[in-house]
Amino acid sequence: MTRHTDDGETEEANGPDEKREGVDGPDEKREDADGSTTGAAPSSPAPGVPEAGRDEQPSIFVPDDGEVPEGTPSERPATDGGVESAAGGSDSADLDPDAYDPVDVFPGGDLDLREGADSCYKCTSCDTSCPVAEVDDEFPGPKFQGPEQWRLKRKDDHDIDESITSCSNCMRCDDACPSSVPLSQMHNEARGQFVESQMEKLSREYIRNRILSNYRFFASIASKVPRLANAATKIPGAMKVGEKLLGIAGDREFPDFATQTFREWWKARGGAQVENPDKRVAYFHGCYSNYNTPEVGKAMVRVYEHFGYEVMVPPQKCSGTPMFANGMLKDARRHAETNVENLVEAIGEGADVIASCTSCSLSLRQEYPELFDIHGIEDVSEHTYEALEYLRINEDLEAELAGTELADEQSFAYHAPCHARNQGLDRQAVETFRDVDGVELEDVGDSCSGISGTYGWKEEKYEKSMEIGAEMFEHMEDAEGDVGMTECPTCAMQMEHGTGYEVEHPLQLLEDAVGA
Amino acid sequence: MAIDSDVLVVGGGLAAVTSAVAAAREGADVRLVSHKASTLRQASGLIDALGYVPATEPATPLRDGPPTAGRELDRDEWPDPEGPLADPFEAIDGLPESHPYRILGADALREGLALFDDLAGDAYRGGHTDRNALLPTFGGSVKPTARYPAAAEAGLASDDRPALIVGFRSLTEYDARAFAGRLEAAGVPFDVAGAEVEFAEAFRADAKVTRLAKALDHDEAIDGVPAREALAKAVAPHLHDAVDEAGGVERVERVGFPAFLGDQEGDEVRAELADRLGADVFEIPMGPPSLPGLRLEDRLYDALDDAGVRFETGNPVVGVETAADGRVEAVAVDKKGRETPYGADAFVLATGGLVGKGLDSDREGVREPVFDLHVPQPADRYEWFVDDAFGDQPYARFGVRIGGDGRALNAEGEPEYDNVFAAGGVVGGADAAREKSASGVSLATGIVAGREAATEATQ
């Protein structure tokens, strides 16, 4: 079983500093996979291409150069929404509320966020949930960044406030909002527009952010020579140079690169060991499990094979999480095109998409359909699950784990990543392992770890990041266990950085518990 | 395969937590699913039971004729409500028959409050008596309430010690001097002064209460002075601001602050300020964003964990997945576009009212969106309201009707399903805003629904 095992490294030439040509058009590879060009109507979908179509709507982030997407809202006259007059009765067909599109009221197209902005009733729950506003006096909070900024920037002469770059994209405001205002979508849009039109492209900040968001590009190079790369980051003063030159927090330790990436391991073991057309999953390992912690990916494969799943490992790029957080939406879109194309093909072969990183799963599920219009992107969103979540839905994990015992007793200090919270997954690890003997999982509280992907890597945010994390560090130290546990690789970095604890992924513990 | 439990509670507020704990204590395996983070963070943190019995008939008969919404014609007028009540239990018989307290009985309220006392522990006061306490709230009014945070204790309006109310210019929803004036006008039995002091100016103009609380939690340095010391220094010159009846100046014995005195370390912050000021320190409950609400949320969710309840937030329950023989077997949870069935032997609906979105409305009508339960309402929407904003608004009492065992009823007054119960704001019949009864209704309906659901599930 070697399907979907090509290493996906062939299109690595689109690093941050190389302007890639032809991004706009459907590339060769896509035509091969689809058997048709993307622009064509999906009248006879090729195998692996679901009959999508619901997602075919204009989105702002057209590939490049401000090209106007087809189907931009027409210049229909704005109406007042068709409210009946007090005199009673409506006297004009124009006032039919069903025919009224709120976004038409404001010029400029963009995402249709008017309804979301109008849903805000200013309760400020988002502000009280914001970990940055709690420590940063310069940050006005999500209520401003979301609905208020959205209204302000309807005006042509209004720049986007620079403070948008201080949002760490933890997305806790989404979870806090009782009115379902799409706050993170508003933040992502504003940040993308700020970076696109207001940020100096030769500035140190822009270059630094571009590098941080394109971690995958650099990791892919470093992992060709992992030992050398690891040694290089440990040269005394190397990180200080990074701080001086680029503004990357010098106090952090750069993560080690694995000597064998997950994909290399997967290839070496001959791909899937279980074939099962009825139970297929496509593994979205993300960058970190591939280059830095392949043991997480291996645990995923072994656990899923234990439950009889056929694991596919499609070619893939970055999920976009760090790019969204830095407003690098063009980069994110380019990667998304590859991901969607390959994942849609796997879905066509009967697979659901499984991610072991909660930020990757959130990105595919929520940010992809919110920000991009790519054929099949809604299907990817609807078929994506986090690894433990999927097993809890489809397998009787409780029965499987009841009565199991771990040879070596171990207590873990568990931190739920913010992005897990938005998917309803913040308690699943604690609940799953409650009945396993010899395992103690202690939830260290609902605070944010403070690193939020790339946020804590920025020199000017480092102290805030550690201040946000202080509560978690404290609770970790109060907890019985001296091993940390979390689903998110960057939360893991922060946990390790703040306490010196080794940090594991729940899949690794599940692997031990079920003896996979 | 579905995600199964004995009892599934839909919602995340006070009623949901109460019913989940009540069910778990009956031995049921309970799961709670809340669409969003708990709205307790918007609550004042006061636990009211019944403060007023409002009139249900206008002073003069309602006018006949066409609707007059939004026009300044002769408004209907309503008599003042009875209250503030000294004893909520004694007044229950004065409520309409369709009120949840009348349906479930005074004991349900008593048991609900007892469960709350157990969950809140030493963080709350008021459990020693049936009688209401009177607490000043940030609007300058005095609210009758059954339970109150320990942090608010020194602020009781029945206390006759002179008080200073502290405010900050940047906290615009709250003016200390106007507040003190309103308290005096309300006839409180103590001398009170209000003072605006310099402290919050060190932060951005619209700093969040969480920012101020964090600074006090960590005792961050403000211009080189630790935050708690800086705050005490700013307040100290005003300790003699209160003027007694004879016109003499007196030193206050207690100082009230807006409720931002620390989040995790609130007790410590208050104790240090009290020590530095030589006066008791109390917090005045605020509107949202509310730290007392956040602290209560933390406490109640810890209690859920202790009771073994599994809970998750982030995904909404969007409807009934399967039902047969008059029973719901599973509901559908929308996980980012994919509906996942959650099965249970009994369900408790505790999704809140019109504001909490447990009830949905448009021009055509008012609906309960999860189980599509019956919501009684006048067919003509001009009968949903009366002209006097403070009158007996019919919409305020909209909601699902329940039987004496908490089961949700259909239009005929029979259980809609054998295993679906309702609690909290989604239950109709109470005018919680005018009665000051929101928390009590949640506790009373919550404990009944939780217990009965557990019985239904485990029998």
UniProtKB/TrEMBL annotation, chain A:
Segments carrying the region annotation (Disordered) are: 1-107
Pfam families associated with the record: CCG, Fer4_8
Query: Care to name a GO molecular-function term for this sequence?
Result: metal ion binding
Among SUPFAM superfamilies, the record links this protein to:
alpha-helical ferredoxin
Q: What is this protein called?
A: Anaerobic glycerol-3-phosphate dehydrogenase subunit C
Q: Domain 4Fe-4S ferredoxin-type spans what residues? A: 156-189
> 4Fe-4S: present as a keyword of the record?
yes
User: Where are the membrane-spanning stretches?
Assistant: none
Taxonomic source organism = Halorubrum salipaludis
> Which keywords has UniProt assigned to this entry?
4Fe-4S, Iron, Iron-sulfur, Metal-binding, Repeat
Q: What is one process in the GO biological process aspect for this record? A: anaerobic respiration
Query: Which PROSITE patterns does this one have?
Result: 4FE4S_FER_1, 4FE4S_FER_2
One GO cellular component, as annotated: membrane
Which lineage do the record's taxonomy fields give for this organism? Archaea, Methanobacteriati, Methanobacteriota, Stenosarchaea group, Halobacteria
Give start-end positions of Basic and acidic residues composition bias. 16-33
Q: Which Gene3D superfamilies match?
A: Alpha-helical ferredoxin (1.10.1060.10)
TrEMBL record, chain B:
InterPro entries recorded: FAD-dep_OxRdtase_2_FAD-bd, FAD-oxidoreductase_2, FAD/NAD-bd_sf, G3P_DH_GlpB_su
Which keywords are on file for this protein?
Flavoprotein, FMN, Oxidoreductase
Q: Which GO terms describe its cellular component?
A: glycerol-3-phosphate dehydrogenase (FAD) complex
Name the domain of life this protein comes from. Answer: Archaea
GO MF annotation: an example: glycerol-3-phosphate dehydrogenase (quinone) activity
Map out region (Disordered) in residue numbers.
56-80
One Pfam entry for this protein is FAD_binding_2
Query: Start and end of every FAD-dependent oxidoreductase 2 FAD-binding domain?
Result: 6-441
Task: List the NCBIfam families hit by this protein, alphabetically.
Answer: PRK05329.1-5
| Protein name per UniProt | Glycerol-3-phosphate dehydrogenase subunit GlpB
Q: Which organism is it from?
A: Halorubrum salipaludis
